[in-house]
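WARN retry 2 of 3 for item q-0093 after timeout on previous attempt; input resubmitted unchanged.
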Amino acid sequence: MMPRWTRTLANIYKVGKQSTSDVPRDLYALPCRRISRVAAVEVPVASDASEKYSAAKPEVNLNKLFRSKPCSLALPPGSALRIEEPNYEGLRQFLLKLMLFYSKQSKSIRAANVIYRRVVSQVDKPAIYDVFNLEKTFRTNFSMLVVHMWLCLRRLKAEGKDGVELGQYVYEIYNHDLELRVAKAGVNLLLSKWMRELEKVFYGNIVAFDTAMLPEAKQDDLQTAIWKNVFIEDDSSKLDAASLPAVMAFTRYVRRECTCLSLTDKEAMFSGNFLFTSFENPKP
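OK item q-0093 returned
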């Protein structure tokens, strides 16, 4: 059974203020591979200078959000937010070829970094927490990270073997970043233990979301999975009327992003040239 937040993430959060896992690692196929040079090849994602988040908490009608027709999330050609593969010439290109800069693995690592930065850009903004009335803590930040990782991995998996392999690189970069986040939360001892626990939570959530999206799933299965894995710390809390609008809106957001990503072309996904729906100025 998946460890609950009170025993895992809440403990990490508490620490911040003061055996091999039996997880099904083949859920996204390839076994885990350490990418020691992730940090060295990380590609920065340009920030959207036109979207300055106001310090004031946005007033939104949750019942009206995310009901519009889904559309592709691909960035248009010429967008300042696009990240293109570097195109070197002459001696520099020759030397980089010798260093395997243009190998399939190197290109995949660079693309995976861009994809992961898109995820981080979405989940680290205050707006997403304000819209859904969530306090931004290590627990809620991790929950948002898992949801958006699932959205990306699910879309990449739909492209077959190449998508699964790219998704594995994205997952490795996520793991590298998560270690830094856990350490920043104040966990310096038994880090590997906490990483194993968080890995169980990650895969438990992935299974719950995937199951809720199956054709035979009930209509409210995804809403229930989101309530349990994003909004509360344990199963003791029941979905109440006060929380229902936010949970329903987040469920619509997740379903819509799934559809939008399915409409996003392979090139945009494999290069990381897409953006999740903005929360700075939320619209229906």
